[in-house]
Amino acid sequence: MKKLLFILCGLVITTNVLAEDYYRNRTIVGAGIYYSGANSILFIDIDGDKSGMPACASTRRLAIDSTAPNFKEMVSFALTAYTSKQNSVDINVTPTCNYWSNSQDIKGIKMGVMPF
């Protein structure tokens, strides 16, 4: 019985953690590229509630830099979503600010109705 309770609690905690790894059905309201040292950084801003962002993301924006293997694709996708005013954008993030110290790290972006 204790094992079952432990497993159920673990599933609830895991589900809550995974739910905060995404910003769903958002619109990208701002995007920019910045060059710093040897890296380019893509910054995006989204509409909606950002209260789930980690404390390090003091600017309440998202970032990825050119060291990420999917950087070029992310730039293309984010700018397409921004210029076409897509309002069904899902953004997969990490709870860190490694790409830029005051912006939450991006892992992926998708548009439209499709599971991540």
Structural summary, described in words:
This protein has 116 residues and is of the alpha+beta class. It has one domain: OB fold (Dihydrolipoamide Acetyltransferase, E2P), CATH 2.40.50. The chain is built from two helices and six strands. Strands 1-5-6-4-3-2 form a six-stranded mixed beta sheet. Strand 2 and strand 3 form a beta hairpin. The chain is globular and about 35 Å long. The N and C termini lie far apart (35 Å). Keywords: Signal.
Secondary-structure blueprint:
Blueprint: H1 2-19, E1 22-26, E2 28-36, E3 39-46, E4 62-65, H2 71-83, E5 89-93, E6 104-111
Parallel strand pairs: 4-6
Antiparallel strand pairs: 1-5, 2-3, 3-4, 5-6
What attributes characterize this protein structure?
single chain, 116 residues, OB fold (Dihydrolipoamide Acetyltransferase, E2P), 2 helices
